[in-house]
Description:
Blueprint: E1 4-9, H1 12-18, H2 20-28, E2 32-36, E3 51-54, H3 57-62, H4 67-82, E4 87-89, H5 92-98, H6 101-109, H7 111-114, E5 120-121, E6 125-128, H8 134-143, E7 150-154, E8 164-168, E9 181-185, E10 192-199, E11 202-209, E12 224-227, H9 228-231, H10 255-269, E13 273-280, E14 287-294, H11 304-320, H12 336-339
Parallel strand pairs: 1-2, 1-3, 3-4, 5-14
Antiparallel strand pairs: 6-9, 7-8, 7-9, 8-12, 10-11, 10-13, 13-14
Amino acid sequence: xxxxxxxxxxxxxxxxxxxxxxxxxxxxxxxxxxxxxxxxxxxxxxxxxxxxxxxxxxxxxxxxxxxxxxxxxxxxxxxxxxxxxxxxxxxxxxxxxxxxxxxxxxxxxxxxxxxxxxxxxxxxxxxxxxxxxxxxxxxxxxxxxxxxxxxxxxxxxxxxxxxxxxxxxxxxxxxxxxxxxxxxxxxxxxxxxxxxxxxxxxxxxxxxxxxxxxxxxxxxxxxxxxxxxxxxxxxxxxxxxxxxxxxxxxxxxxxxxxxxxxxxxxxxxxxxxxxxxxxxxxxxxxxxxxxxxxxxxxxxxxxxxxxxxxxxxxxxxxxxxxxxxxxxxxxxxxxxxxxxxx
Length: 342
């Protein structure tokens, strides 16, 4: 890996969350140069790059209505096309589809068949493309086999608004739906969310608080509006996460089932840096996939730096057939404190 140059193209927020300065220092200790890419400047003088790690979600979403972002994205794509030996982590088409919950939920819905032996599934869902009369939405909910309560999520899976969700308890409250969005059957899961963080061939499971159990079936309760990021933060303290009843602890997800899920999604998504939100159904103990995330924060993964560098090494070594250098766990100890704030 000596002399390799790794370009990073991230928003300021992502750069801070990842602690890119600390990662650059860590890589320098392994003779790898990290270069921050400035999209507002010509890319040619900033290169060459052996690999580019990016999260262009902001630019991709804004490019739909902003000419400046369209130009930035076009410049980036032109550079990548002109340098086919530069590895892109991850491919732009793969990342773009995960920005659309319509697309990602279609992928999730296929897991029941491809992972049938592992009893992995995703809840029934419904795409709401545009404002329709209430009766047609009610009919679609029944036809698609959804059950109350329902979680309503924005179609765009990026930005602060993507965390604004609602819990709908009756057909009458479907007036609170604001298309385009996704309706998903809520599955009681004991207020525990398991976030699976994927870095190439490695993955890590981190437990987070989540929504409490609610009675199944329609009721006259008013719609609950909430921010999923606030509810599922590690230090979250919310009435929405406090169980109303005593219940035995659910078994953790099967490590074999999670590994099978990650393998399948890596193939389906053609991605190496992503997260999967899974829950355990309190009645069936089925592993249930409820969301997929692009290049997540990896908060709670103490060896993220080592894992990311190892994956970068692996990708480039496969490309050049150079014997792989290894990143020892001992070398991560000095940086583990820096990574816990991801």
